[in-house]
Specification:
It is built from 14 helices and 21 strands. The chain is of the alpha/beta class and about 475 residues long. A hairpin with a 4-residue loop joins β15 (about 320) and β16 (about 325-330). The longest helix is centred in the C-terminal third of the chain and has 21 residues, at about 395-415. It is globular, with a radius of gyration of 23 Å. The chain binds NADP nicotinamide-adenine-dinucleotide phosphate. NADP nicotinamide-adenine-dinucleotide phosphate binds next to α4.
């Protein structure tokens, strides 16, 4: 039903979820909205991250909007630049640029009981009824706390801020971090003529997810028969949700199978000393699995060496490790991850009573059904606390969340509703249910991982994909307090 009123809506971010929010708002008949994007183009994560080897370890046909199948994917596991191009093409197809203001960073949102006053980095302000924060999840880089890092005399940068002016050929390169990002960078840099030192602090389990290029015949067929790409989405979704997503949430054959595959993969390392060095001391899947079929072959290349990941200090161009070794380097790459619990912050949020979101979340972020927080009316977000980020494709999570958020906004579009605010009771009940299921998950089985927050509770989803869609099927009016 077309909205009878047009609330003023601001979407923050023109990445994968902000774009989808815009598309869905258009489809739902909302016209008074804008997207503010801090960068110069759409794409979010895939625009910002350009490190060598960047790819998505979720199969391409599944890492795709359900409503926008893409017959042109060139491989099972898409390269970052290809995903970025896909997002640019989707934005073009839906003429989204007319709704987007680029280079506009939202820094502050204050609610006066009726509306939000939004302030941008450049001092501009605007007043809106709704804010939907689509800021992504992993976008605040974490820098390691290493003495002397700032004074490193060579080139040094985080994986999310890749310096493309730096040449690597013939250089002594150090890499701190061996998670999903570090693994992709390592496999790529190891192909070059350089000497690569991996500072390995905690070895991770590596699942040998095979990639393969799609042949031109396959791509042509997918173009002629769009149902092939749709089937690819369905196939990979069902496979992910029934294998990987079930393995992380409870014990069972899925967990045993994934673990067995990781252990078998590790056996490909022939040298027993190296194998011991690469053997994690926690269960497979406890940390986010590294998906790679080239990790172990790369790390065994002659130009790659492993150093102690416990770094004492950096002085000049030398990294001193706690085992007493010194490593002289020309370039130091930090694949040291993100602050995954910042969510849409550092954006500052304040409500009419002067309560800051930072204070409300001081003990750890929480939300109603992953998308709203009590005390902050008409403010919604994607990929919020307890989203199934470690379970399946981020795009499919966001599709569910956006539909839910737009139904909440639609209340204001239909009747006399002005504000909708998650109740504390509903939020507490939701989180109680989620936290109660955590003991069965693999994330609490004894490792450090970026899912787990201050209180030792993973900010992740301990149920199936079907349950997530069910819980966010439609907003329940009794879970919100409403003003007219
Ligand atoms: P991460 O998983 O948080 O890994 C950070 C790495 O840096 C870890 O190996 C960590 O070691 C190491 N580290 C941090 N501080 C250190 C220090 N002071 N000294 C030595 N080592 C240090 O970060 P990420 O690899 O960027 O991945 C984050 C997430 O992004 C992934 O889990 C995944 O969800 C997503 N991602 C996805 C893809 C994809 O293909 N879909 C690709 C890349 C990233 P410890 O383990 O010892 O802390």
């Amino acid at each position: 039903m077309a909205p009878q009123r047009q609330p003023k809506i601001l979407i923050v971010g023109a990445g994968m979820s902000g774009m989808l929010a815009a598309i869905r708002l258009i489809e739902a008949g909302f016209t008074d909205f804008r997207v503010y994007e801090k960068g110069p183009d759409v794409g979010g994560t895939w625009r910002v991250n350009t490190y060598p080897g960047i790819a998505c370890d979720v199969p391409s046909h599944y890492y795709t909007y359900k409503s926008e199948p893409n017959p042109n994917w060139t491989a099972r596991l898409p390269q970052g630049s290809e995903i970025q191009q896909y997002l640019v093409d989707v934005a073009k197809k839906h003429a989204l640029h007319q709704f987007i203001s680029f280079d506009k960073e939202v820094v502050d949102c204050q609610h006066d009981g009726k509306q939000w006053t939004v302030t941008l980095q450049d001092g501009e302000t605007l007043i809106v009824d709704f804010v939907v924060a689509c800021c992504g999840l992993l976008f605040n880089p974490t820098y390691p706390d290493i003495a002397g890092l700032d004074e490193f005399e060579g080139d040094c940068f985080h994986s999310a801020r890749w310096d493309h002016s730096v040449s690597f050929e013939g250089k002594r390169v150090g890499l701190i971090g061996t998670g999903s990002t570090g693994a992709q960078i390592m496999s790529n840099l190891a192909k070059l003529k350089l000497s690569l030192t991996i500072f390995l602090r905690t070895p991770q389990w590596v699942f040998p997810l095979p990639d393969r290029e799609y042949s031109s015949a396959e791509k042509t067929l997918a173009k002629w028969f769009p149902s092939i790409a749709r089937f690819g989405h369905f196939f990979y979704r069902v496979t992910f949700e029934n294998l990987f997503a079930k393995a992380v949430i409870k014990p069972g054959w899925q967990r045993r199978l994934m673990g067995w595959a990781c252990k078998k993969n590790l056996e490909s390392v022939q040298d027993p000393n190296l194998r011991a060095r690469l053997t994690p001391d926690f269960e497979p899947l406890c940390k986010r699995l590294v998906m790679s079929d080239s990790y172990y072959s790369s790390i065994q290349k002659e130009n790659v060496s492993i150093a102690d990941g416990d770094i004492e200090k950096i002085s000049g161009n030398t990294v001193f490790t706690k085992d007493g070794q010194q490593h002289e380097l020309d370039v130091l790459v930090l694949a040291t991850g993100y602050d995954a619990h910042a969510y849409f912050r550092p954006m500052n949020l304040k409500n009419k009573d002067g309560v800051q979101l930072n204070d409300l979340w001081s003990e750890g972020p929480f939300a109603l059904r992953t998308v709203a927080v009590p005390g902050f009316p008409n403010f919604f977000f994607t990929l919020g606390p307890q989203s199934p980020i470690g379970n399946f494709s981020a795009i499919s999570i966001v599709e569910t969340q956006i539909d839910y958020i737009i139904e909440c906004i639609a209340w204001a579009g239909q009747g006399s509703v002005r504000t909708v605010e998650a109740t504390t009771q509903a939020t507490d009940e939701f989180n109680k249910m989620v936290y109660a299921a955590m003991p069965d998950t693999i994330w609490v089985s004894g490792c450090t991982n970026w899912y787990t927050g201050k209180k030792g509770i993973p900010s992740a989803w301990p149920f199936t994909g079907a349950r997530f869609r069910e819980e966010l099927k439609a907003p329940r009016l009794e879970e919100f307090s409403v003003t007219h």
